[in-house]
């Protein structure tokens, strides 16, 4: 179709989720590229090729087009602070670097400013994996809002599908717009007004307009019923019949509003909002993963983990892995099994050990947990937690075997089949540990390898040839 003009775009494709860094990078490159085309892009690529690898926990200075971008690559041990993280010194860099407070996190406050009054409701919708459509005036706004929504659950992993910018040309268009079945658990970001009509049957629709930089919260953003969604006259707001389980945190809204009036830096506002959402998520998760004293256990109503002890002598006598290391016990026995999660027992425990211990918000926490158990996020969380516990138990089992120090005594009255079985299991655990799948100390790995050599050396020559081929 002839439109009277030529449209072109600069697209950056990466496997790294460094959204904020790449936004800043494109804002530098795109204007020059549209003006100078290929030579500019070639020079930029040569500069980027010289950048150091993104090592977690390090602060990097990245030169490009006469500008130095200073970013901190996050790691698992980083802890969220009440204020934006401090960067390292400029090290007499010329020109002075452009400091990005985060390499991957969006400006959360700027994204949520039009819908601040509904942040907790949106957090609940994300927690429950509800289908949600974001109607925005531009692809940039729809993308940023969708990415901001899915980041609300940190540190809980977002396990549903999400499309920051969905168009009528996507292959799932018919699937998402059909009325013959319920909408899938997906967050869609769209800009085409055509979707206002075709997605009216979706249970939750968030309509956002152009952001306003005034000192007041937008008064036009109200909670509306889905039936009020019209084809052409759609005002900004959250269209849903969902009733939030938790009461709104008015103190947070007053604090953010006061920050706007005092022209507090946006990064500080974002830090306040992100901290609130993080603490809210952690308060929700803590009852599910509450540690118990005395090692690793699988409780009857939930999964419980504590840090790995430094020495096996600190284990309680009832620990299955501890019993495995006693003289006379079969060292080749399998690790103890993890008991299944019992929802009813967990819900009964909330009265005296629920999120009210760490969160001041009132509301129907019990009802929120009941709906969470039916969501994809509970299934994703449970699978990940079960995997972590299984790896912990495997590591403890390996440590119990290696610290038993009765391997020769144990082998005296064992058949060759049992001895070979122990060798195979130890090798399997070593492979897992060396692949960083088991949290095992280096000394334990060395002892396990020594045990394997000791056991193999006690076998007949023909079995040694089978287990250790030349």
How would you portray this structure in words?
The chain has 470 residues and is of the alpha/beta class. It has helices spanning 19-36, 38-49, 108-112, 119-127, 139-150, 173-177, 194-198, 250-261, 266-285, 320-324, 343-353, 365-372, 376-403, 407-412, 416-434, 442-457, 461-467; strands spanning 59-64, 67-72, 98-99, 132-135, 161-163, 186-190, 204-207, 222-224, 237-240, 297-298, 303-304. The strands form three sheets. Strands 5-6-4-7-9-8 form a six-stranded mixed beta sheet, with helices on one face. A three-stranded mixed beta sheet has the order 1-2-3. Strands 10-11 form a two-stranded antiparallel sheet. Helix 8 packs antiparallel against helix 9, helix 13 (376-403) crosses helix 16 (442-457) and helix 15 (416-434) runs antiparallel to helix 16. The longest helix has 28 residues, at 376-403. The radius of gyration is 28 Å and the shape is globular.
């Amino acid at each position: 179709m002839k439109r009277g003009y030529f449209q072109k775009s600069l697209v950056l494709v990466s496997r790294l989720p460094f959204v904020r860094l790449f936004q800043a990078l494109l804002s530098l490159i795109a204007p020059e590229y549209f003006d100078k085309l290929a030579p500019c892009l070639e020079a930029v690529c040569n500069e980027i090729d010289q950048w150091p690898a993104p090592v977690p926990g390090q602060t990097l200075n990245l030169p490009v087009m006469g500008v130095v971008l200073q970013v901190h690559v996050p790691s698992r041990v980083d802890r969220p602070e009440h204020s934006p993280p401090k960067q390292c010194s400029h090290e007499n860099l010329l020109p002075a670097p452009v400091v990005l407070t985060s390499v991957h996190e969006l400006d959360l406050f700027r994204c949520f400013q039009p819908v601040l009054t509904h942040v907790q409701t949106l957090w609940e919708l994300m927690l429950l994996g509800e289908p949600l459509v974001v109607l925005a005036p531009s692809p940039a706004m729809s993308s940023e809002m969708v990415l901001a929504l899915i980041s609300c659950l940190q540190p809980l992993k977002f396990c549903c599908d999400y499309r920051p910018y969905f168009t009528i040309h996507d292959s799932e268009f018919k699937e998402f717009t059909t009325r013959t079945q319920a909408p899938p658990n997906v967050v869609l970001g769209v800009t085409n007004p055509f979707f206002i009509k075709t997605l009216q049957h979706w249970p939750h629709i968030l309509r956002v307009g152009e952001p306003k930089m005034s000192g007041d919260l937008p008064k036009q953003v109200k909670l509306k019923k889905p039936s009020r969604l019209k084809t052409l006259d759609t005002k900004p707001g959250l269209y849903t019949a969902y009733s939030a389980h938790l009461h709104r945190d008015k103190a947070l809204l007053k604090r953010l509003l006061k920050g706007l009036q005092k022209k507090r830096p946006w990064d500080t506002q974002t830090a306040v909002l992100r901290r609130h959402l993080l603490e809210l998520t952690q308060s929700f998760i803590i009852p599910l993963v509450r540690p118990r004293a005395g090692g690793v256990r699988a409780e009857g109503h939930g999964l419980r983990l504590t840090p790995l002890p430094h020495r096996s002598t600190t284990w309680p006598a009832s620990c299955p892995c501890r019993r495995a290391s006693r003289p006379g016990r079969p060292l080749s026995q399998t690790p103890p099994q993890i008991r299944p999660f019992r929802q009813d027992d967990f819900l009964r425990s909330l009265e005296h050990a629920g999120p009210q211990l760490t969160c001041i918000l009132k509301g129907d926490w019990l009802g929120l947990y009941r709906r969470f158990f039916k969501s994809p996020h509970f299934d994703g969380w449970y699978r990940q937690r079960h995997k972590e516990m299984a790896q912990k138990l495997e590591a403890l089992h390996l440590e119990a075997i290696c610290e038993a120090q009765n391997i020769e005594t144990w082998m005296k009255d064992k058949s060759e089949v049992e001895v070979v079985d122990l060798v195979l299991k130890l090798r399997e655990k070593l492979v897992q540990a060396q692949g960083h799948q088991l949290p095992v100390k280096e000394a334990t790995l060395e002892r396990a390898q020594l045990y394997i050599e000791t056991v193999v050396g006690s076998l007949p020559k023909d079995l040694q040839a089978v287990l250790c081929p030349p």
